[in-house]
């Protein structure tokens, strides 16, 4: 997760973690739920970055681009997100 914080700070974006990771209740079979919130020209890079970071940790990921997520979805998770950085 520190890698994600560093990339967000360096590139002017953020990763929004929600679900069990944000609520500090991850289990052995949990995945990482994350919304990628970066400028449009950096979205692909940020998406690949988080995919690679999760793969290196053998951590399944459920990744969403904020720009492609519905307002209904974002509203549903809004109170459960932790922003990095």
UniProtKB/TrEMBL annotation:
InterPro entries linked to this entry: NT_sf (IPR043519), Polymerase_NTP_transf_dom (IPR002934)
Residue stretches making up the Polymerase nucleotidyl transferase domain: 12-64
Transmembrane annotation, as ranges: none
GO MF entries: nucleotidyltransferase activity
Taxonomy, superkingdom: Bacteria
Pfam family, one: NTP_transf_2
Protein name: Polymerase nucleotidyl transferase domain-containing protein
């Amino acid at each position: 997760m520190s890698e994600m914080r560093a990339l967000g700070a360096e590139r002017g974006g953020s990763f929004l973690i929600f679900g069990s990771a944000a609520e500090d209740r991850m289990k052995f079979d949990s995945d990482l739920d994350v919304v990628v919130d970066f400028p449009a020209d950096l979205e692909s890079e940020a998406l690949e970055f988080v995919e690679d970071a999760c793969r290196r940790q053998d951590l399944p990921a459920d990744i969403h681009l904020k720009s492609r997520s519905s307002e209904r979805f974002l509203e549903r998770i809004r109170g459960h997100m932790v922003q990095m950085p």
